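Researcher: Please translate sequence to C-alpha cells.
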Amino acid sequence: MKTLNLNKFVLLTVLSLAGLVFSNSASALCVVNGDGAIVTVSGNSTTPVKDDTADEEIAANTAKDSCTITPDIYKLNIYKFGLCKSDPDLNDLSSCQLFFDQAAGVELDIQKGVSATLPIPEFSIEPGTYPYLYVLLSSKLGMKWSGRMSNAVDGASGDGNGGTYCWTSNTGMRASNGVDGDGAFTTAHGTSLAASVKTMDCGTSAGTPAFTYEILTKFSESNCSSALGANGDKGTFAIEGTGSTRGIPSVQLLTSTDIAATTCANSAKIAWTTDLETSYVVTENSSFAMSVKATAANSLEFSNGNDNDLLLIGSGAPRIYLAVTN
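Model: Translation complete:
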C-alpha cells in the first residue's frame, strides 16, 4: 500500500445543465438578450421568464415562472470523499477508501474562473478496482448571485421598489420543504425562513450580493408533516455525467451522526453515491486529481401570481469529478 497525497482541489464553474437537480424545479437555462440580461416580460405576469431547453412536458422558449442560472459563488461543505468496492447503500462504508474524512467538513467556495489549492492530510488508497464514487456533504448549500433583467422586477424591497438589477440579499436559510402553513421551520442547521420571505432583491442599480442558503430537508415535493421513513429519503436517478465520473447517481439524507434521517428536521447531510459506468482502477503508482464545478442548475423562482416578484434562488447539484492516473 502506498501513501499518496492529494494536495489540490481545482475549483471551477462551468455552464452546463445538471442531470441531477436537488431543487424541485424542472426549469432550464434562462433566456437572455444580446446584452446578457435575462428576458422578463414588462409588467405583471404569472409566467415572466423563459428557458432555452425543452423537456418532456414543456417546449423550449416557453413562458414560465422559473429558469436556471449558474451562481457566481456556490458554497459547499464536504465531509467525506472516497472510492468504494461495493455499493455504500445505507451509508455502509466498510468497502470504501477515503481521501478525506473531516468531522467539521471541508468548506469550498466554487467560483467561476477561480482555481484554489486546498491542502488536506495525507491519505492511503488500497490498490484495487472501485466501481463507486462516494461523497458526503452538508445539506446546507450557499449561493451568491447577481444579474440583470430586461424589464424591472420587484424583490425584497417591495412592490414598486424594484428594477432591472437583482441580487441575493438575505443571509437566512430556506428549507426546501416546510410544513403546513409554510411558516418558519426547525432544521438540523437552525430555523429556516418562512416561505413568504424573499431572499432576492432588485433595484435600479447594482446591489451587493450576500450568501443565501437552502437546506435540503426532503427530496420529494411533499411537505415535511410526515416522517421520511426508516431509511431516510432516498432517490436514484438516470445515468448522467461525462468521462470517468459518468454513472448512475443516488442520494440519501443523513443526520449529523451519519445515520438515516427520519424527519426533515434532522436531515443534516447528503450521502451521494455514483455507480460508475467505468470502474476506477487504483495501483501503487496512481495519482489523483479532484475538481468541483457548479452548474446551471440553480433556479431563479418568481411568484406564480399575477405580479413581477422575484422570490429566491434554489439550490442545484454541483459536479464533483475525480481523475485517476496510473
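Researcher: Any highlights?
Model: The longest strand covers residues 96-111.
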